[in-house]
Specification:
heterodimer, A: 325 residues, mainly alpha, 2% strand, globular, B: 304 residues, MetI-like fold, two-stranded antiparallel ribbon, 1% strand
Chain lengths: 325, 304
Amino acid sequence: MTVFIIRRLAQSLIVLLAMSLIAFGGVYLIGNPIDILIDPNATEAERMAAEHALGLDQPLWAQYWHFLVNLLHFDLGKSFSASIPVSDLLLQRLPATIELTIVAFLVSFLGVPLGVIAGRRPDSLLGKTIMAGSILGISLPSFWIGLMSIIVFSVWLGWLPSTGRGDTITILGTQWALFTWDGIKHLILPGVTLALFNFALLIRLARAGMQEALMTDYVKFGRAKGLFERRVVWLHAFKNILIPIITVQGLELANLLTGALLTEVIFAYPGIGRLAIESIHFLDRPVIVGYMMFVVTTFVVINLLVDIVYGIVDPRVRYSGGGND
Amino acid sequence: MTDVAGTHATAPVADDAKWQRVLRSFAENKQAVFGLALLVVLLLAALLAPVIAPQNPYDLAQISFLDAMMRPGEASPGGILHVLGTDSQGRDLLSAILYGLRISIVVSASATLIALVIGLVLGLAAGYFGGRFDAFLMRLVDVQISIPGLLIALLLLVAMGPGVGKLVIAMVAIYWAYFARIVRGVALVERKKEYVEAAICLALPRWRIVLRHLLVNCLPPVMVVGTVLLARAVLLEASLSYLGLGVPVTQPSLGLLIANGFGYLMSGEYWVSFFPGVALVMLIFGVNLVGDHLRDVLNPRLQR
């Protein structure tokens, strides 16, 4: 087990290193940010001073080395446009994204009972409708659904706000909107929009799991024993379909984090995804790289945890060299 | 149904039967037929856009600012009936959607196809030759797949700048790995089977073994993965174009058309975003319906 964890850990580090190299290389190949940041009438000396202050006059490998060393200290450099450390900027925006992701994550779990219903009677009208709905749900572009929900619920009905985060309260130095009524109202549309894909995915997972579970011997035994059908389905079979669902959901949580980017842009929601898009338009390199490193690290950590948990549960994984093969 | 995938001694014959079975079961499934019909209609609409569109949305002589933001069903003074309304520049929305559909389809389909070919070649080579090349390629695939696709695309597009060709490159860079992984897996399994050993003993040329036996067996899973990725590619293209990082403004795809309508939503002028989105949903829905069924039919595990 230890060997397995060490090997997975090494693999994760390689991914992070590769990502840091790609992100740094990719982002630093684009135009000189000095052109955007500095007054076009600035003298050559002022320009050089600014370049020096931002460390842009050093060779690329030196900049990368510097970046890597700082990364190990959780120092992502300073934003070009906001002149504050990137880590502060990310931390400021992070609570918003966390709230959005968690709300979407929880909302999407409503798909599980629907999937169970569809799995019990796959050929009934209800089962077929749920399945067709789930294919539709997977096919709906979240950004378009976001726009349509704005027009219906904000413009026509006027029930829910369409932009921003609403009132927040400060807990432990960070701002949270989940604890104010106004904040919750602001979370509904983006949360549901972001949840849609995972919701549809969960319907499919639960349906497939239920269909398999209902063919097993323990279900037949439970029925033969005269247990209520409700108890057989929702207790015995249900417990067993949760295992594959939880595995997939670990990764899906990470996917929601990237998916939040589009949702945040549509709803002008001040999370890290919107920050990233703003930075791309302003060519604010440290922020772009910082965002990417943050998301990929989260991704890799969740991946690692899922694999380790899986390795503990299922010994076959340990010996096949990582859970990805 | 006998297990066709297991009887490889007579691979070619069995394959014919298999494809016939796939076609038959496909025709019996209403959802799959509906999805396919939807795709055919959309493809035809995109292909015939210059013929059936009421106006050429790129021809500045044909559009007029005076016709801007007309409601669906209104007719412009010039006599064109705008079934789906017009956008802020006075373009007929139906025409813009038909031309946008072309771009969406061309970009996502070509990206998926190129990724498929690259993945197929690399995956076959890795599966057949094994060794260091295989180990290296699979580590690369691991790294690639552990980074979210949207991030890779953002990064590459930020580095390369916008443009249709660059968008395709960025999408190929994401999707090749999925093809390579599945092809390598199948090739590795097939390579160890007796019929390949027999072929080697018969001193058949290598290319023949790889193309005639390994490749053919890789096709069913590649088709399943291909449709899944095609649907994702359409969605990714639309998302990137929506963010303004995809196609240029002069060649608006469906995603960019949706983005163009964003500014008018708040005043209740829904149609500029609504109708391109409907076209986009139909496209992805069609691909998913077909793909969903392909997966059920081609999945050897469900054939028992």
